[in-house]
Structures are given as C-alpha cells and as structure tokens.
Design goal:
Blueprint (H helix, E strand, L loop, with lengths): L6 H23 L3 E10 L2 E2 L4 E6 L7 E4 L5 E7 L1 E8 L52 H4 L1 E5 L4 E2 L2 E3 L1
Parallel strand pairs: 1-8, 1-9
Antiparallel strand pairs: 1-2, 1-5, 3-4, 3-6, 6-7
Length: 162
C-alpha cells in the first residue's frame, strides 16, 4: 500500500489534468477562418482602391480588413457566420486646400509685394485617378446595409454598391 501523498502533491496531481482539459476546451472554441475574395463594384464598374471590412455579428470578434486593388479585387480571411460589410475609399478623394489668407484691408504688403521665394502650395490637389466617388453610406457598418453569410469554406463574393 502506498503512503498517502502530502496535500500539496495531491493538489498538483488534480491541477495538471484540469489545466490540460481547460486548454483543450479553449483551443476547441477557436473557430477556423476562411478566405473570402471577390470584387467591389459600383454601378457595375470596379471600385479601384480603398478598403473593405467584414465585421462578424458575434460580439468580441474584431473585423477583418483588406485593401481593394486597381481592378476592384479584395481578399480577406474571416470566421464563418453572418457579417456586416463596409467599403471605404475616402482616403483617395481629392483634398481641397483653402486659398492662402488675404491681407486685411488696413495692412500693406511688405516690399516686394509679399512674394515668397520658392513655389507656393497648390490651392487644390489633382484628383487621384483611382478615386471613384461612392455614396458615403457605405463608409459605416451601421449604414451600409451590406450583409453576407460566410460559409465554412473558401468562397467568392462580389460586393455590389448601388
């Protein structure tokens, strides 16, 4: 007959299998991810740049994000289940810069007419050839109205904006 183990040794013997069971349960809860690829289209033409994001309906899971290429293609990985989608290409929009400030009426320009040596910044930038204006409702999950159910397999899904 074996002598009884000290209490500390008994606790260790019980703790090790319990920790292994806990780790295996947590690892089993980890859902697999799947590739979703396709094109983003606006009025049946590719959106040549920006971002697409898929946000799972399940709380606590961060959204997946992918760049849209020049042909409107995207590819991302996401867990299976229902997702909300947003498309955002605002960063490609031309930026309007205000004109330089005018001298107040009671002040006079310094000698030389107030000219500064070197080039002046442009009053506006040239439009980005990749920018296609899309309705701003697609910039947010709450207003885009875009939903999709990701299947437990790799798949193709074209996002059509109206």
């Amino acid at each position: 007959m074996n002598p009884p183990l000290p209490i500390i040794a008994q606790r260790r013997r019980l703790r090790t299998p319990a920790l292994l069971l806990l780790f295996s349960l947590v690892a089993g809860c980890e859902s697999a991810t799947y590739t979703v690829s396709g094109r983003v289209l606006y009025k049946d033409k590719p959106v040549p740049g920006g971002w697409v994001m898929f946000a799972p309906k399940a709380s606590g899971i961060p959204p997946s994000r992918a760049a849209i290429d020049e042909q409107g293609r995207y590819e991302l990985t996401v867990r299976a289940g229902e997702v909300q989608i947003l498309v955002d290409n605002q960063e490609l929009a031309p930026v309007e810069r205000p004109p330089p400030p005018q001298m107040p009426g009671d002040l006079k320009a310094p000698p030389g007419g107030g000219k500064v040596d070197g080039p002046r910044p442009p009053t506006s930038t040239k439009p980005n050839p990749r920018y296609v204006e899309i309705p701003p409702i697609y910039y947010k999950f709450e207003t885009s109205g875009l939903k999709y159910t990701v299947k437990p397999e790799n798949q193709t899904y074209d996002i059509e904006l109206k």
